[in-house]
């Protein structure tokens, strides 16, 4: 698609109207990390909205409607009128940041009832008539029943109203409430984010509603199928900016009404309850196409042009999706805003997407090509959701995988549109397929699809936001699109979106529409889309397909990383899949087939799963493996580059599963001295990482280092030559990535020339204050220099971190600071992770994981997490998405009897506190540790011998 269709910036720029010169400059008196205070005390707020909860006689779970997590079907919301007024300075009496608001929700009674349940969490209500927490009126003019009791249910998060009579079926009612909430820094609901600008503290009020925190901002029917029309009014200081999902309808000045508090109102209209968001403050760039596209961020970031890249690519990507979906962008505007504090990567609020700064802001001087790719793919991911997820929404969270898997697949298509030279679509194999294979090969994995009734509590919903939903979902949808062909896939997708626009679906609705497309097109399949996909969606795991070229037999079995692990979940398909197979023979692509019990044999080598479009691993008989190894070492380019990465990854994992010998896997690395491509190298480094993790505390470490240093030296020299002794940047996106691998592995394995190079650059930076290091190389150069250096290097990097003006640079430093070999620096750094003025809350868990990755930091990080678990858990939110990363991260190296005992003890000790979204990760860690112990016992001697043999040769 040409780039000419949108108006160039100079034409399109409209006055920046947002009072940018007069942004709120708020200096808070003191920082109150008030969630701490508010803990276990929902009535800490100043208003008198205490509950009038009736005495509970039965403490055991009862059958009352308000004890259930799902809403009854009796009431259906239609229109909300919500007014919110966030205070960007702390309340004088108790030093808390608060917001006040009121809401009128109009709903229809679908089933006769005398009970109103509406979600509400951590809100305090003003008592209205007769001391009740709400007022009910009838829309039709007849008299509404009276409220007899009203109270809050903190566990199930309801406001409950008992009525003295029944609501009539099909009649409409209005429920009015007035409430106060805390504008805490807890990254959930209506919350606040802070940053410094020219020595002044700035406060932003923003939201993260998904999945279950809209109820923390105002009372609402907080389920994805409860779509409604929202009229949002925001009251805010003159000189600040208010944004909402919809376009602004009206602006009113309140200055006259409340003379002491000059404010203005903004009214927005929007739909869809779980994806609402409000921003405040910020400057903006303004850009016109057929929709209005704007990027918001801190004022200096916009002034420095850091929003330009996002602005440049949003138009083409939106255009791409309009074509892909055959559906116009459903809203008049598309705002994207970068927030200093944000837990996830981004959130697809309809028409107002929120991002971490690193996921939206690009600066040529500071951003690496990997940062740039992340921005392009995340923007594409979120824009994809504007249709798939927002226009059409899955009915309940159990189908989350389809929503996230889909966006995680098409993000590559959208990014490819914006950056056609990158070959970014190939990278899904490393970032999603191979990544999730590691998790999905465990007996503790779970199927993509969950039963609706199994997903009830907010923590259960949060747990679904995992690698299975995102990466496996993306992988199987890519496979589906491939075997249907993109033409048929998009045809089905288009009718699905058309049919269900503004409605809700279940995942089988998509299969139905794809089947219609298959029928219309006459595509031949071995079974229906529904039946084929069920084998991938309803059972966990994936197959290893074995092609035995001596017998010609092709077979499949459930691939388990630990062959001794026990699969306790039965599968209706007995862990058999309907497998599409693309393959080649001695470099010649063959006609694709579906797995049957007979196939290839003969003299040629056979290679299956071309470009890894299938979600499975492949094994061969020893003869064919040998032929493939020969092909790699004589003419590796006869094998497509993605499949070279696959051969390495499959071999290492098959070896872990004891399907092939470990030495055969190691043999796949011997050709690397001739390999120059990124994907195979990255695959090898990823797999060898496991050897580092298992052996970097043992005598095998030295021989591994010697072997890899030898292999990588060729690559290092190749890039030195290509870059004219490190003075130029390689042209290709993949080459830029592989240059980083070359330097990183060369330095890590102790190549002196590399260490001199990186230390030289860093020292030059320290002495001259001018940073000579290209952004692509910064993470790895900083890390190596800090590892080789001492306190001076660390302190220098820390001061650069604290003063960084762009989050992307700060992130690189934050990562590198974890590389020091000094235990005292690491321990102090760990302490910093729980001090939000040192390390932002959103970055705490990843920083701890970085430290744990360091062999010196591993045990320090584990001790730290164990000792502070209940604090981390309560302070960093049970609904946060990163607990599984934290637990998996700090236990990754575990491989001893002693460590497994500690892990079990940890699980037992904290059973009461819980693990939230990390619950599954605890079990996965235990399983992984057991597997590691066995693996070391069985492999250490052979591995040591293999590396010694290579080094002698
Ligand atoms: C809601 O609050 C705003 C601001 O305090 C007020 O102007 C408005 O009248 C309130 N709405 C109702 C229905 O009371
Ligand atoms: C954005 O696009 C303009 C016009 O094509 C170009 O000059 C500019 O370099 C681009 N900016 C970025 C950061 O890509
Ligand atoms: C392939 O078939 C031969 C002959 O039956 C058998 O010995 C060998 O173990 C098989 N290899 C694999 C990987 O299944
Ligand atoms: C460096 O690159 C040039 C041109 O690509 C090539 O001719 C030369 O042989 C290379 N030198 C080394 C040492 O690899
Ligand atoms: C690395 O630096 C040291 C000290 O400056 C020097 O002696 C050595 O020759 C350098 N090594 C290489 C390979 O450049
Ligand atoms: Zn998403």
Automatic annotation (TrEMBL):
The active site is at 382 (proton acceptor). It holds the Pfam family Peptidase_M1. It comes from the Eukaryota. Residues 76-252 form the Aminopeptidase N-like N-terminal domain. The keyword Metal-binding applies. One of its GO terms (molecular function) is peptide binding. Its cofactor is Zn(2+). GO terms for biological process: peptide catabolic process; proteolysis. Zn(2+) binds at residues 381, 385, 404. GO terms for cellular component: cytoplasm; extracellular space; plasma membrane. Its EC number is 3.4.11.-. Keywords: Aminopeptidase, Cell membrane, Disulfide bond, Glycoprotein, Hydrolase, Membrane, Metal-binding, Metalloprotease, Protease, Signal-anchor, Transmembrane, Transmembrane helix, Zinc. Residues 309-536 form the Peptidase M1 membrane alanine aminopeptidase domain. The chain crosses the membrane at residues 12-33, 273-291. SUPFAM superfamilies: Leukotriene A4 hydrolase N-terminal domain, Metalloproteases ('zincins'), catalytic domain. Its main location: membrane. It is a single-pass type II membrane protein. Residues 40-64 are annotated as: Disordered. The record marks 470 as: Transition state stabilizer. Binds 1 zinc ion per subunit. It is found in: Cell membrane. The keyword Transferase does not apply. Homodimer. Belongs to the peptidase M1 family. This is Aminopeptidase.
């Amino acid at each position: 698609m040409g780039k000419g269709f949108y108006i160039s910036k100079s034409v399109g720029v409209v006055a920046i109207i947002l009072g940018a010169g007069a942004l709120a400059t708020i200096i808070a008196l003191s920082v109150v990390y008030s969630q701490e205070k508010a803990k276990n005390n929902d009535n800490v707020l100043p208003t008198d909205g205490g509950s009038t909860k009736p005495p509970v006689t039965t403490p055991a779970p009862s059958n009352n409607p308000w004890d259930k997590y799902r809403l009854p079907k009796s009431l259906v919301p239609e229109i909300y009128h919500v007014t919110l007024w966030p205070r960007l300075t702390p309340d004088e009496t108790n030093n808390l940041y608060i917001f006040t608001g009121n809401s009128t929700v109009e709903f229809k009674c679908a089933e006769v009832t005398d009970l109103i349940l509406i979600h509400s969490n951590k809100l305090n209500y003003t008592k209205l008539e007769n001391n009740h927490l709400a007022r009910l009126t009838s829309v039709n003019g007849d008299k509404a029943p009276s409220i007899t009791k009203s109270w809050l249910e903190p566990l199930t998060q309801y406001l409950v109203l008992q009525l003295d009579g029944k609501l009539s079926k099909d009649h409409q009612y209005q429920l009015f409430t007035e409430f106060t909430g805390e504008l805490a820094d807890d990254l959930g609901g209506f919350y606040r984010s802070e940053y410094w600008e020219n020595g002044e503290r700035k406060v932003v009020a923003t939201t993260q509603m998904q999945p279950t925190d809209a109820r923390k901002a105002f009372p609402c029917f907080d389920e994805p199928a409860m779509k409604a029309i929202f009229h949002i009014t925001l009251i805010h200081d003159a000189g600040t900016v208010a944004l909402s999902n919809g376009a602004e309808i009206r602006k009113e000045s309140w200055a006259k009404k409340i003379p002491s508090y000059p404010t203005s109102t903004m009214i927005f209209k929007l739909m869809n309850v779980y994806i609402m968001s409000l921003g405040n403050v910020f400057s903006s760039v303004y850009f016109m196409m057929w929709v209005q596209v704007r990027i918001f961020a801190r004022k200096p970031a916009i002034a420095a042009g850091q929003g330009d890249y996002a602005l440049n690519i949003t138009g083409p990507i939106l255009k791409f999706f309009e074509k892909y979906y055959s559906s116009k962008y459903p809203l008049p505007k598309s705002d994207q805003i970068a927030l200093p504090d944000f837990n996830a990567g981004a959130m697809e609020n309809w028409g107002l997407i929120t991002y971490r700064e690193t996921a939206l802001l690009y600066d040529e001087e500071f951003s690496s090509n990997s940062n740039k790719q992340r921005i392009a793919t995340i923007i594409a991911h979120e824009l994809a959701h504007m249709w798939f997820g927002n226009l059409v929404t899955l009915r309940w969270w159990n189908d989350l995988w389809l929503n996230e898997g889909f966006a995680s697949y098409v993000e590559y298509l959208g990014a490819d549109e914006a950056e056609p030279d990158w070959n970014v679509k190939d990278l899904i194999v490393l970032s999603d397929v191979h990544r999730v294979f590691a998790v999905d090969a465990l007996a503790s994995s779970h199927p993509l699809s969950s039963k609706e009734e199994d997903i009830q509590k907010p923590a259960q919903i949060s747990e679904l936001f995992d690698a299975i939903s995102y990466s496996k979902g993306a992988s199987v949808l890519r496979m589906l699109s491939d075997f249907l062909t993109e033409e048929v896939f998009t045809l089905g997708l288009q009718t699905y979106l058309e049919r269900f626009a503004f409605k809700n679906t279940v995942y089988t609705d998509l299969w139905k529409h794809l089947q219609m497309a298959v029928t219309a097109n006459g595509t031949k399949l071995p079974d229906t889309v529904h039946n084929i996909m069920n084998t991938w969606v309803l059972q966990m795991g994936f197959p290893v397909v074995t092609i035995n070229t001596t017998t010609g037999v092709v077979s499949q079995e459930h691939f388990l990383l630990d062959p001794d692990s026990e699969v306790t979940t039965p599968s209706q398909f007995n862990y058999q899949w309907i497998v599409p197979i693309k393959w080649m023979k001695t470099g010649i692509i063959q006609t694709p087939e579906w797995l049957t019990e007979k196939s290839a044999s003969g003299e040629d080598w056979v290679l299956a799963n071309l470009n890894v479009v299938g979600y499975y691993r492949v094994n061969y008989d020893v003869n064919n493996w040998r032929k493939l190894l020969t092909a790699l070492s004589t003419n590796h380019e006869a094998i497509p580059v993605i499949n070279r990465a696959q051969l390495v990854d499959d071999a290492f994992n098959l070896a872990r599963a004891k399907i092939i010998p470990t030495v055969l896997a190691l043999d796949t690395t011997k050709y690397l001295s001739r390999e120059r491509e990124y994907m195979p190298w990255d695959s090898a480094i990823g797999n060898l990482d496991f050897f580092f993790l298992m052996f970097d505390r043992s005598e095998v470490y030295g021989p591994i280092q010697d072997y890899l240093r030898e292999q990588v030296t060729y690559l290092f020299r190749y890039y030195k030559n290509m870059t004219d002794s490190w003075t130029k940047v390689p042209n290709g996106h993949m080459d830029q990535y592989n240059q980083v691998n070359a330097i990183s592995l060369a330095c890590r394995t102790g190549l002196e020339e590399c260490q001199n190079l990186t230390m030289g650059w860093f020292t030059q930076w320290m002495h001259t204050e001018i940073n000579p290091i290209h952004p692509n190389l910064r993470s790895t150069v900083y890390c190596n220099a800090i590892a080789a250096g001492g306190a001076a290097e660390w302190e220098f990097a820390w001061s650069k971190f604290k003063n960084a003006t762009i989050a992307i640079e700060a992130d690189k430093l934050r990562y590198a600071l974890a590389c020091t070999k000094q235990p005292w620096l690491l321990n102090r750094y760990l302490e910093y992770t729980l001090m939000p003025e040192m390390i932002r809350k959103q970055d705490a868990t990843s920083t701890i994981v970085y430290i744990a990755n360091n062999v010196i930091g591993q045990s320090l990080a584990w001790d730290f997490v164990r000792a502070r678990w209940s604090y981390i858990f309560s302070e960093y939110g049970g609904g946060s998405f990163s607990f599984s990363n934290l637990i998996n991260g700090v236990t990754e190296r575990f491989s001893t009897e002693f460590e497994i005992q500690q892990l079990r003890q940890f699980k037992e000790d904290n059973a009461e506190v819980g693990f939230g979204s990390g619950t599954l990760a605890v079990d996965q860690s235990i399983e992984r540790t057991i597997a590691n112990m066995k693996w070391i016992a069985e492999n250490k001697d052979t591995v040591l011998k293999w590396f010694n043999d290579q080094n002698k040769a």
